[in-house]
Amino acid sequence: MSLSRYSAIISAALLAACAATTPQPDGRWKSAGDNEPPIELELKNGRLSVSGGCNRLFGTARVENGVLIVDQLASTMMACDAVSMARDRDLSLLLNSRPTVRQQDGHLLLAGPGKQLELRQQEDLSAAPTRLVYVAAERKPCSGVAPMQCLQVRDSKDAPWQLHYGEIEGFKPEPGIAYRLRIREVKVAKPPADAPSVRWVLDKVIEQQVVAP
Q1: What is the structure's pLDDT at 194?
Q2: For residue 199, is it left (φ>0), alpha (ψ between -120 and 50) or beta?
Q3: Chain mean pLDDT for the chain
Q4: Cα separation values, 206 from 6, 11, 72, 91, 122, Å
Q5: Over the range 169-183, which residues count as b (16 or more CB within 10 Å of their CB) and which as e?
Q6: If you compute the radius of gyration of the chain from its CA atoms, what whole number of angstroms results?
Q7: Contact between residue 11 and residue 4 where contact means Cβ atoms under 8 Å apart
Q8: Considering only the top CATH level, what class is 3-121?
Q9: Higher confidence at residue 126 or residue 142?
Q10: The pLDDT of residue 111 is above 80
Q11: Where are the domains of the chain?
Q12: What is the dihedral of CA 103, 30, 46, 24, to 10 degrees?
């Protein structure tokens, strides 16, 4: 074997080793700050999913030498308002620009040409059971520790509405819009006496519909 051929093999092996040892920011991440709606990114087993405008972006992804490399980035094809569509374009441009990745203390920073995105790591809820619920377009008065406005929820369209004493984490309903959600039910280890023993955390908005007043 020639020396040049041997050197090429060694160089390729070293690059592969570096790529293999590069920390992969697997998990769920959510935009820091006051983005509305929040930008959510999930990276797991080499698959990337991002949402935060109108559509969901997805593709294969890996981190090599501090750079996020996304292959075959695709998108769902829903039409939304101009602001949401612009957010989709900005996210797509950032992900396709091979942004640098910096991960520290539960934060993830993606930085590309003229654009950066800071995300916070979310707890791993993959083992928590899921549940589909409908959420009514309006709240109803209820009394917990004090008088408040409760969400109305039900498991099926023909079931009566039930008051939900508490919020659904990660979910910010708009008045006049009815939702169907997939939520995660997370057990609370030692809940206070006046608090529920299960937390509801938004996993996905399945559908939403404007309800006439």
Answers
A1: 65
A2: beta
A3: 84
A4: 55, 48, 25, 22, 20
A5: ebbebeeeebbebeb
A6: 22
A7: no
A8: mainly beta
A9: 142
A10: yes
A11: 3-121, 130-210
A12: 10
Is this model's pTM higher than 0.70 or not? no
Q: Give the whole-angstrom CA distance, residue 108 versus residue 93.
A: 18
- What whole-number distance in Å separates Cα of residue 111 and Cα of residue 103? 12
Write the CB contacts of 31 (distance below 8 Å, at least 6 apart in sequence). Answer: 38, 39, 40, 52, 117, 118, 119, 120
Residue 1 has pLDDT above 70, yes or no: no
Q: Give the chain's count of helices (H) and strands (E).
A: 2, 14
Question: Which residues, at least 6 apart from 25, have a Cβ–Cβ distance to it below 8 Å?
Answer: 43, 63, 101, 103, 108
Q: Which two tokens stand for residue 4?
A: 């040049």
The CA distance from 177 to 134, in Å, is 11
